[in-house]
Structure formats: structure tokens, C-alpha cells
Amino acid sequence: MEPSFSQPQLSGQTVVVLGGSAGIGLETARRAHAEGAKLILVGREPGRLKRAAQDVEAERTAVFDVQDTQALDAFFAGLDTPIDHVMVTAGRPTYGRVVDMNVDKARHALDEHLVMVTQVARCAAPKVRAPGALLFMGGTGARRPAVGLALASTVTMALPALIANLALEVAPVRVNLIAAGFVDTPLSASLLGSELENRRSQLRTVLPIHRVVGPGDVAALAVHIMINTALTGATYDIDGGQQLVAA
Fold first, then answer.
1. Which of 35, 44, 121, 247 is the most buried (most CB within 10 A)?
2. Fold annotation for 14-183+214-237
3. What's 111's DSSP letter?
């Protein structure tokens, strides 16, 4: 019997990764590249973005902050060829008691996630060829109320509803959300500092999968959602069972 070889599933397609210079974004770019996709990477730090672009042979890069609405508008308006998928990993969670928080900081935290999603959808959807997808990142860890998680919980609970409604508004372009628990990325390292290794050890012990979720796990899910054109309006959890245990 002749050996069978799977064909690249994203050949001829273009994937834009906002936040593509490190972590989940860069790993998604690698995975999409392996599936034959052309890549456009966006990041805030020029040197790191240049290295990432070389890594995945990106056809184009752009340096700007996704929170900059004018830059975001200009970027998508300036794309002279259609694109197929947009992956957004930019942004970071905000923790702290809201009763002690500056109102401007609280407003920025909500803008950084909820408003940013609507801005990306508004700018990107007209450029995406159906049945391509817009894919956003959310979380699972803040589904349980706790002191210091008010804003993170609000974003966690609101994003699935926003994604479902956007999927109807921009159809036949697809819109989906990946909700991750702890993922071992440079962002996690910056948030946890000296506690990072303790957190890793704890999760290896208590998670049902007996290991820590890495960016490659999330990237594999992201690329699957791009490939499977029946998926839209949904939230996909990936946390190694973190929600099932006291972790």
C-alpha cells in the first residue's frame, strides 16, 4: 500500500496574527505556516517582531498597538489583497479590587478586550474571504468569582456573548473564541515572576492532564478552527481541566 500524506490545509490562504511576535500568537503563526499559509504579523516591539517574521517567513509585518484604533483602521484599510483568517492574541488581563481602582484604569481594561474585539471585527471582516475566520482569545480562570477578579470575570463572561452576536453580524465570515486557562507563555512569566515555577509545579500535580498547557496546544486548536469551516459563534475551552479542580 502506498503511504498517504496529508496535504497542507491552509495552502493559498493568508493568516493575520495580531500579537504574533511571541507566545500563542507566534506559535499559531508557526502552525499555520506548516499548513501552507502565508502570514502577516503585527506586534508592538520591532526587534521581536522582525525575529518572529524571519522564523515563520512572514510576507509582511506591521508595528503598532492593537489598542490604537487609528493604526488598526489604517492597517486593514491598507491591505491590498484579501485575507482568510485573523487571530488576535494581543492584550493582558487586569487584576485588582475595582473599589480601589482608578476609573480610567478600569475603563481601559474593558476597552482592551471588549471594545478591541468589536474594533477588529469592524475593520477586519470586510477584508476576510468567507468562510475565513476571526479568532479571539479569552479565558476560563475568572469564571469563579474572587476578590481581585471583577474585571477579568466581566470580560470572561461577556466575550462569549459578544462573539456569538458578531458571528451573526459578519456572516458568512466566521467568528470564534478560544478560552484558555493558564498557558505557559512569556506573558504568564511576566505576570507571575518568581512564582512561575511554583505555579507550573502545582498545575502538573492537580490538572487531569498532569502537565501544563503550552502555546502549542492553543495554536493547534486555533488552526483547527481556521480549517474547520463549520465552526462559528462558539467558545472553545482549553485549560487542561483547570476548571474541574481547585487550581
1. 121
2. Rossmann fold (3.40.50)
3. I
Q: Which residues contact 14 (CB under 8 A, 6 or more apart)?
A: 37, 38, 39, 40, 59, 81, 82, 83, 84, 85
Q: Would you call 64 helix, strand, or coil by DSSP?
A: coil
Largest CA distance in the chain: 68
pLDDT in tens, the chain (247 residues): 555 457 899 999 999 999 999 999 999 999 999 999 999 999 999 999 999 999 999 999 999 999 999 999 999 999 999 999 999 997 777 888 988 888 888 888 888 889 999 999 999 999 999 999 999 999 987 788 889 888 888 999 999 999 999 999 999 999 999 999 999 998 888 888 999 999 999 999 999 999 999 999 999 999 999 999 999 999 999 999 999 997 6
Q: How far apart are CA 234 and CA 144, in angstroms?
A: 20
Domain range summary for the chain, segments of one domain joined by +: 14-183+214-237
CB count within 10 Å of CB 243 equals 14
How many angstroms separate the CA atoms of 206 and 245, rounded?
7
Q: What are phi and psi of 231, to 5 degrees?
A: -100, 120
Q: What distances in angstroms separate CA 14 from CA 23, 86, 198, one per listed residue?
A: 20, 9, 39
Q: Report the distance separating Cα 199 and Cα 204, nearest Å.
A: 9
Which pTM was predicted? 0.93
- In a 3-state reduction of DSSP, which class is residue 162? helix
Name, in order, each residue with C-beta under 8 angstroms of 125's C-beta and a sequence gap of 6 or more.
134, 170, 173
Nearest residue to 142 (alpha-carbon basis) of 160, 154, 130: 154
